[in-house]
Amino acid sequence: MKLRNGAEYIESLRQLHPRIYYKGQMIEDVTRHPATAPHVRAAAMTYALASKAKFKDLATATSHLTGRTISRFTHIHQNIEDLIKKIKLLRVLGQKTGTCFQRCVGFDGINAVYSVAYEVDKKYGTDYMERFKQWLTRIQDENLMVVGAMTDPKGDRSKGPADQSDPDQYVRVVERREDGVVIRGAKLHMTGAVNSHEILIMPTTALDERSRDYAIVCAIPIDAPGITLIFGRQAGDDRRDHLERIDVGKPRFGVVGGEAVIAFEDVFVPNERIFMNGETDYAGSLVYRFAAHHRANYGACKTGLMDVLTGAVSYLAQIQGTAKGSHIRDKVTEMIHLSETLYSSSIACSAEGQPTPSGAYLVDTMLANVCKQNVTRFHFEVARLATDIAGGFIATMPSEYDLESEAVGHLVEKYFSGVSEIPVKERIKIGRLIEAMTGGTAMVESMHGAGSPQAQRIMIFREGRLAEKIKLAKALAGIPGRGKGKGKAAGGGNK
Ligand code: SF4
Ligand code: FE
User: Fold this and answer.
1) Ligand 2 centroid to 435 CA: how many Å?
2) pLDDT at position 494, please?
3) pLDDT tens digits for 49-98?
4) Is it the case that residue 332 has pLDDT exceeding 80?
5) Do 76 and 97 touch, CB atoms closer than 8 A?
6) In a 10 Å sphere around its CB, with 0-12 CB exposed, 13-18 middle and 19+ buried, how is residue 17 labelled?
């Protein structure tokens, strides 16, 4: 692995020159800019862990392409053990950063593209797999971070890509050349984009035959000509102008992943970096496999965050003298119960994984959808319980400037104290951490990251094997199998 630790990753970003805007200004160095540096540090943790003996087994893998040791984030899952190790790794990283460390999106994209390229080649005699393996070998050897770019702007949601009044609402090929293609469009909400080395572009939806130009999968360096990134605002980001301040809550790492728009204004992609080009019938499988892998993650990375939050409110309860209350213990117990339930889902969908024809393993898609669906509820409940235990001060306390002020500092000191032997600053610090982990954007990510709740409900219904369940009921009730319910049930098909 060329990049062996967090420091080398950060240094490698300084060698790139992506065009990034934030609040109307160009960001020259993402590793130092206060808006992006915390996200860079969170992603750097994925590199740091690989160099620590304790986590090496989780954070690294053996490449099935080269036999060399690589970061797990660049690995193609070869068995169930790989799927489970990924889940364990994500939980550890969630615990260490308390935020999104971003690198899983590219990881999931790599695995989805690998399995689909194999099937496209089989059907059409193309050579996408060979190209992809060559590109992936470089990603593995150099240990690069890839942003998996799937979500298109979508324009008028009642229409598909081919029917939009503005055809650029989905990323598309605008020109085909002998040596490659030219693409145009944009991808939104791209987690970790500003601190990635490469972009892996994938379609965002199943496509019909009229949408051939939209069936494009390819890889592009983050600083290729024609690419512009616009980094998104986050709640409370003004506080980050003073990163060293307690008010930030979590000074080293971001509150969420750090998302950006990636715009492609006629970007040339050479043939060797194209892994699907017009095979519309495979776009749906690609989206679905990517989504399943990413949905499996959420019971792991978010559980890591919930572990931190549970620790934070438990400590706060101790230092403000409420820890012994039976209702506090009960709420903490419920937080743990919900976290572990989510983790069970992530482990379960991995343990039930199956090989795809390419040999790459895919999680159980039904259980992965159930996992993510539960995150959209349980994470909110965990945050609600945390807010309940912590008390209102996490949303209303004065800033560190007031704590330090000659005029009012003594008042903050006096009225924000807890049990006497604990410095008031400590209570404020832990309160700010809880604020950062429960307020606003982290919740939005749990709700909509890896697909909004309705996306999982559609798949859960589709994979619900209703026909089989109807059969079971009929058999027990002594109803003969005929007509409706004998074959496929309405809407709820078999796998
Ligand atoms: Fe990884 Fe979780 Fe962030 Fe997705 S939300 S990129 S799974 S840490
Ligand atoms: Fe996410």
Assistant:
1) 20
2) 39
3) 999 999 999 999 999 999 999 999 999 999 999 999 999 999 999 999 99
4) yes
5) no
6) exposed
User: In the chain, pLDDT over 90 holds for what percent of residues?
Assistant: 79
Which atom, in ligand 1's list, is nearest to the CA of 450?
4
Question: In this model, does residue 29 exceed pLDDT 60?
Answer: yes
* Dihedral-angle region of residue 249 (phi above 0 means left; psi in -120 to 50 means alpha; beta otherwise): left
Q: How does DSSP assign 83-102, residue by residue?
A: HHHHHHHHHHHHHHHSS---
Which of 71, 93, 101, 151 best tests ligand 1's pocket when mutated (most atoms within 8 Å of CB)? 101
Tell me the domains of the chain and their CATH numbers.
6-285 (2.40.110.10), 291-462 (1.20.140.10)
Query: For this structure, is 294 an active site residue?
Result: yes
pTM, two decimal places = 0.91
100 lines ligand 1 (CB under 6 A): yes
Among 39, 97, 104, 293, the active-site one is 104
Q: Which residues pair with 71 in a beta bridge?
A: 60
Q: Of the candidates 176, 118, 113, which has an alpha carbon nearest to the alpha carbon of residue 150?
A: 113
Q: Which of 190, 23, 164 is nearest to 106 (CA)?
A: 190
Strand partners, 25: 22
Looking at residue 245, what is its pLDDT? 83
Q: Take residue 116 and report the two structure tokens written for it.
A: 């689909």
Q: Tell whether ligand 1 has an atom less than 6 A from the beta carbon of residue 101.
A: yes
Are 310 and 339 in contact by the 8 Å Cβ rule? The answer is yes
Q: Which residues contact 57 (CB under 8 A, 6 or more apart)?
A: 85
